[in-house]
Specification:
With 202 residues, the protein is mainly alpha-helical. The protein has two domains: 66 residues, Homeodomain-like (Arc Repressor Mutant, subunit A, Orthogonal Bundle), CATH 1.10.10.60; 129 residues, Tetracycline Repressor, domain 2 (Orthogonal Bundle). 71% of the residues lie in helices and 3% in strands. The protein contains ten helices and two strands; from the N terminus they run ααααααααβααβ. The protein has a two-stranded antiparallel sheet. It starts with a helix and ends with a strand.
Length: 202
């Protein structure tokens, strides 16, 4: 019996899958997820609709495939450096992931009400991974006595989430596809605000 892992591996190595996903992503960006049909995806590629169904059962399956390819589902390897440097790395990861896949993120965030539960579940899982790393990074700094917090750990993580989300949402809702400053600088500004508002570096 073919395992789910084997199926995913076969998909990743099959060029029609990549072509169908790319065409769907273009259409999602141009006319929105709700208005995109499997027939439109087939038409964009100049193939029959049944050929698209040979690889994907629905446009939701295509969207999930795109998420799995473009949004990480594993935590980042062990981070090095000071608290600021580690948090800047995590913030920069989130910001760059969005900028590199801005059209996909716009679909996910602006058309969330019409999406199924699975795409949302994938996003929540990714966010949980990132926030877990942020929490552990701050905990390590407190335990090492290199950071003295002025509020609870939950409040610090909430503040981090709010600052990063504000920056990401600003790009999603704008007409631009890039941040106004280099990503490293944007991440540094976020972490500077976070540290100044929540604690003291020792």
């Amino acid at each position: 019996m073919t395992s789910e892992k084997d199926i995913q591996s076969t998909r990743a190595q099959t060029s029609p899958v990549t072509q169908i996903a790319a065409a769907a992503e273009q259409l999602f960006a141009e006319q929105g997820y709700r208005k995109t049909t499997m027939a439109a995806i087939a038409s964009r590629l100049g193939i029959g609709r049944t050929t698209v169904y040979d690889y994907f059962r629905s446009k939701e399956d295509i969207l999930i495939y795109l998420i799995e390819q473009k949004i990480p589902h594993q935590p980042r390897p062990q981070l090095q450096g000071s608290l600021e440097e580690r948090l800047q790395t995590l913030a920069a990861d989130s910001l760059s992931r969005l900028q590199d896949n801005i059209h996909l993120y716009r679909v996910l965030f602006t058309e969330h009400p019409v999406l199924g539960t699975k795409p949302g579940d994938h996003l929540v899982h990714w966010q949980q991974i990132i926030l877990s790393q942020v929490r552990m990074t701050i905990q390590d700094a407190i335990r090492e006595h290199s950071f003295t917090p002025r509020c609870s750990l939950d409040q610090i993580v909430f503040a981090y989430t709010a600052l990063v989300s504000q920056k990401m949402n600003g790009l999603i809702l704008s007409d631009s596809s890039r941040y106004s400053q280099p990503i490293e600088q944007e991440a540094r500004m976020i972490v500077d605000l976070l540290i100044r508002g929540t604690g003291v570096i020792v």
